[in-house]
């Protein structure tokens, strides 16, 4: 055994005898030229240690590897794992959702499970309270299986069904009005062709093209596959030359996908899919009139490989992109199952699909190499995707269904933002607009019908609950609103679904910090100034914390607190977003006073209290009438592109016309960021309405 040449913290037995260096398994598989080429390309023998072991010894090693059963309650899902695998790895194998914000590094404390029985080996962790330890809580990523094990997912972290925001008759009608002419990618064209005669003896394919031409198809640029040619003569004669041709409209050409005898049996369906890093939303759409006949949402299974896109890419580099792809596809297919079953329709009628997601999500889903997205100079493998087929991606639909993936202008401004612009119409109108999607990455677009600039600032996972002691997403039991009594400093909280509090979500945190700042509990640097003897103040793990709810008022049997570290994380996040606005405006030679509209999108924005967000310096102190919440603009844009060729074209044009500003090495951004790390800001003149 020796230490990996690239990762000195790893012990490995893979020794290269030629260069006398050790490499870990990851390096052996890695294709990054910076890591291995200088050694591996000329190295004939890598696996020295392994090879030196004779066959007998390898067999002996195999015999020694023990397999154990791990059962996850309450759903009784079980899997077999190898001794030494972590419970987090077991959860992945059993397809059980466990929140692993830090991708198994042991730093977030989110992957809690309760050990009911069995042998495990645990790493000690400060991230579990004494109360939790007494109840046999363990961190899944820090606990290795050493025997048959039964674990339980704690009530407070059980995955709950997500509500689909903006659904219902009213929202459907509003979306339908945005699409004037329905023009799907894949069209089914019924044709009544003339029967051949001695005077009209053109080939079957020419006859088909002649028929298609009469319907307005550009047959000069029509491709035909060999399968269609093979099936053609029988299909034409089966129903006396009455046929239905399926034609895919592509950017520079068309393709006849299949030819079936007779007219079409039932109307085509389509799917608009928003693949978010956290949540995936699916709309099932009747392509005849644009009605949304089913909608659902679920947690992206990839969350067990980390909260943000960087952790997902790291995971793909380590375990292979296929793993991440199948996690995403299985989430999508489960959601498709739900909508198809509830609508009582058949999968094969789904023949058009639009996917909208950020650049990393699109790459992972399509099993396209994502690693250079996170390495300077941050290059995606693909920005504009050709029209694909469902069978090539693995989506549960008609195998030939046409799939349009929203193009994205940059590694950190992707198709979901382009989709949002298609929906918002920002690029069609005169007013100068700031468009912002606040999440782990704050993506910002500035512009109007004449020009578009975009940028992304790494806000970190705090707004979505990551890295915060009691942070959680806006699910049942999340504290979403907080007010604090100015006399007593006692909090009043509202939770999602009026349930007992289980944690605090992004909007609740913004409320809380704004209230604590205004009511004198913290100062402008985010440090507590409330007397330590106050009933709401306590010391937890050596730092001061404000108690939002005492254990007997919660659904988790513990005090729900907000610590100084939590406040600091939130301040870092809001500082990054505000600095992003400022620098983008500066680059365009503008300032906040020139902005006519400020549009907020994304799931988090839904619950955002604009006034409180201004108080903490997340949003600029401008006329409140300029703010508008757009809802999930990514799914809305995907819906529009599903139904209309014009909107698909618009998406490509938007993506190609946006100027991307990179903040990663910008000194100006760093300066603005540092200035924004106070409440609300170091420049109080920029926040005249915030009075403490
Ligand atoms: S502590 Fe286990 S995933 Fe973060």
Structure write-up:
This protein is an alpha/beta fold and 692 residues long. It has 5 domains: 62 residues, no CATH class; 93 residues, Roll (Ubiquitin-like (UB roll)), CATH 3.10.20; 76 residues, Ubiquitin-like (UB roll), CATH 3.10.20; 161 residues, Nucleotidyltransferase, domain 5; 104 residues, no CATH class. It is 29% helix and 23% strand. The chain is built from 20 helices and 33 strands. It has a 6-stranded mixed sheet with strand order 18-17-16-19-21-20, sandwiched between helices. Helix 14 packs across helix 18 and helix 18 packs across helix 19. The longest helix has 24 residues. The protein is globular. The chain starts with a strand and ends in a 17-residue tail after the last helix. The structure holds FE2/S2 (inorganic) cluster. The site of FE2/S2 (inorganic) cluster has 14 residues, from loops.
Bound molecules: FE2/S2 (inorganic) cluster
Shape, please?
Answer: globular
Number of domains: 5
**Which strands sit side by side, in order, in the main sheet?**
18-17-16-19-21-20
List keywords for this structure.
alpha/beta, Ubiquitin-like (UB roll), 5 domains, six-stranded mixed β-sheet, 20 helices, about 30% helix, binds FE2/S2 (inorganic) cluster
């Amino acid at each position: 055994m020796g230490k990996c040449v690239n990762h000195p913290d790893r012990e490995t037995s893979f020794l290269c005898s030629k260069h006398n260096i050790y490499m870990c398994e990851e390096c052996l598989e890695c294709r990054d030229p910076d890591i291995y080429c200088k050694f591996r390309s000329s190295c004939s023998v890598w696996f020295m240690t392994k090879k030196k072991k004779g066959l007998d010894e390898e067999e002996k090693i195999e015999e020694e590897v023990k397999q154990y059963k791990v059962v996850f309650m309450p759903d009784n899902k079980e899997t077999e794992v190898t001794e030494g695998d972590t419970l987090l790895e077991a959860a992945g194998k059993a397809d059980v959702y466990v929140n692993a914000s830090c991708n198994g590094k042991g730093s977030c404390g989110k992957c809690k499970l309760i050990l009911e029985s069995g042998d495990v080996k645990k790493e000690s962790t400060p991230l579990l309270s004494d109360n939790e330890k007494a109840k046999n809580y363990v961190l899944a990523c820090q606990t290795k299986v050493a025997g048959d094990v039964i674990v339980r997912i704690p009530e407070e972290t059980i995955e709950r069904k997500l509500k689909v925001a903006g659904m219902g008759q009213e929202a459907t009608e509003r979306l339908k009005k945005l699409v004037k002419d329905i023009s799907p990618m894949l069209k089914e064209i019924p044709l009544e062709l003339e029967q051949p005669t001695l005077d009209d003896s053109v080939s079957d394919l020419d006859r088909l093209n002649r028929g298609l031409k009469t319907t307005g198809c550009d047959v000069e640029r029509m491709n035909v596959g060999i399968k269609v040619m093979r099936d053609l003569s029988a299909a034409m004669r089966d129903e006396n030359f009455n046929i239905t041709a399926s034609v895919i409209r592509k950017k520079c050409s068309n393709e006849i996908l299949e030819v079936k005898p007779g007219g079409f049996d039932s109307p085509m369906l389509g799917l608009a899919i928003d693949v978010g890093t956290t949540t995936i939303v699916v709309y099932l759409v009747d392509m005849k009139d644009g009605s949304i006949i089913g909608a659902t949402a679920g947690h992206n299974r990839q969350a067990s490989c980390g909260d943000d896109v960087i952790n997902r890419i790291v995971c793909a580099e380590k375990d292979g992109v296929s793993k991440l792809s199948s996690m995403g596809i299985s989430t999508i297919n489960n959601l498709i199952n739900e909508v198809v079953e509830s609508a009582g329709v058949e999968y094969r009628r789904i023949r058009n699909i639009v996917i909208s997601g950020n650049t990393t999500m699109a790459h992972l889903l399509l099993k396209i190499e994502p690693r250079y997205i996170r390495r300077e100079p941050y290059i995606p493998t693909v920005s504009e995707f050709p029209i694909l087929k469902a069978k090539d991606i693995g989506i549960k639909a008609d195998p030939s269904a046409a799939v349009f993936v929203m193009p994205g202008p940059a590694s950190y401004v992707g198709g979901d933002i382009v989709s949002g612009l298609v929906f918002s119409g920002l690029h069609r109108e005169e007013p100068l607009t700031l468009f912002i999607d606040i999440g782990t990455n704050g993506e910002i677009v500035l512009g109007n019908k004449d020009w578009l600039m975009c940028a992304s600032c790494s806000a970190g996972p705090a707004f979505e609950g990551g890295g915060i002691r009691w942070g959680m997403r806006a699910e049942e039991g999340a504290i979403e609103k907080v007010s604090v009594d100015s006399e007593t400093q006692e909090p009043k909280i509202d939770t999602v679904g009026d349930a007992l509090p289980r944690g605090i979500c992004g909007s609740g945190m913004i409320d809380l910090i704004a209230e604590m700042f205004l009511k004198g509990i913290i100062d402008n640097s985010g440090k507590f100034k409330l007397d330590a003897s106050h009933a709401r103040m306590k010391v937890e793990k050596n730092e001061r914390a404000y108690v939002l709810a005492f254990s007997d008022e919660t659904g988790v049997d513990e005090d729900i607190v907000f610590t100084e570290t939590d406040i600091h994380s939130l301040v870092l996040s809001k500082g990054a977003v505000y600095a992003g606005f400022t620098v983008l405006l500066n680059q365009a030679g503008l300032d906040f006073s020139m902005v006519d509209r400020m549009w907020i999108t994304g799931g988090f924005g839904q619950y955002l209290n604009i006034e409180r967000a201004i108080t903490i310096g997340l949003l600029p102190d401008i006329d409140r009438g300029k703010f508008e919440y757009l809802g999930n603009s990514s799914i809305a844009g995907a819906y529009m592109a599903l139904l209309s060729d014009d909107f698909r074209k618009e998406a490509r044009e938007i993506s190609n016309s946006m100027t991307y500003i990179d903040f990663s090495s910008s000194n100006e951004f760093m300066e603005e960021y540092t200035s924004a790390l106070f409440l609300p800001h170091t420049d109080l003149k920029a926040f005249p309405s915030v009075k403490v």
